[in-house]
Each structure stands twice: as structure tokens, then as C-alpha cells.
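Predict structure. Chain length: 206.
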Amino acid sequence: MYDYIIGQIKRITPEYVVVEQQGIGWQIFTPNPFAFRIKEDMQQIFLHMHVREDAHMLFGFRSLDERELFRKLIQVSGIGPKGALAILASGNPSQVISAIEMEDEAFLVKFPGVGKKTARQMILDLKGKLGSLLEQVELPSAEDELPLFGVNPNKQELEEAMLALIALGYSDKELTKIKPKLEENDQLTTTEAYMKQALQLLLKVK
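Prediction complete.
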């Protein structure tokens, strides 16, 4: 079974990245593809292979703890790989773990595809089993990525973020509510920054 891959990021899409290793391009689905950069340096991505009758899919993560949380989530009835990616894309896995430990269904149902029944199942299946991850899960914060001065937002990068959020399962109606706030924020200049801010807003307005 694959554990990780080290290669060059050659392409980034709203749903996946393509990593080239020894002349082969690997399609790897990630929570936030735009957290990666196309550059010559070799990058390590931790892998999870998901096998279906019609496809073998690779999911990639920037840390072992992020992958472990993904694996815990897909064990819950009602949560598939796409739903788990949407939850991890929020950039705040510790909040998800805390919500499970505190039985905060109201927070969990804010994620696309997570209804009350699934939220309750997450709590039943995972409460008390994620404590070791609470202090270890570390994802880059949006603050680390933001520029030190304001510039006009890049329309293309904003649209890329919108496409990525749609791929995660958010509806046009939900995105329409938050898009004006994103357009007004002149400190957001990268697709990843737009995505992280959008996800924070989505968790507040739903």
C-alpha cells in the first residue's frame, strides 16, 4: 500500500493536483489543492488509496495527522472521501475534533453533506477516539499566506476558489452569500487565501 509520494507538482485543479514522479503523473485528490504550489522543488504528500469497483483513487495530505483524521472520518457511516475532504478543507481540524468531543451537532451540520443523522453518527463513532490528534493536527493558517499590504483581489484566483468549493459540495446559493465579502477583502490575493476565508465565512452563515 502506498504511504507517501515525493515528486514535483505539475498541475493544480479545483479537485486534485498532479504529481510527477519518474515520468509518471499521479492524480491526487486533496482537501485544498491550492495549498500546493507548482515549483521545481520535490514535495512530499502522504497518501491514502481508496478502492471502488469502478476506480482506484489517491487522496493526498500534507501531514500524517491530517491523513489519520481523514481515515477516521471515512469510517463513519454517511461520510465518503469527498465529504471528508470538505471537512478537512476548513483548515481547522481541531475545531472538528472539539465539536465531536463536545457533541456539538450544530457545528458539524455546517459542512456540506453532513446532516443531523450523520453528525450524530460522527459523535457516536469518533468521540473519545480522536484525543491524540487534537494537539497534533497542524495545517497552515491563512494568516501565514496573506501579504503584508492590500492589493486589488485577483478575479481569476477568486473564481478558482469558487470552483474548488463547488467541487467540495457547497452550493451556488451558499457561495452567493459570501462572495461579496470576499470581493471586498483586498488582502486576499491567492486562491488558497480566498478558499480559507470562504470556508470560515461558510461555517458562520449556515
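Summary: Residues 191-205 form the longest helix (15 residues).
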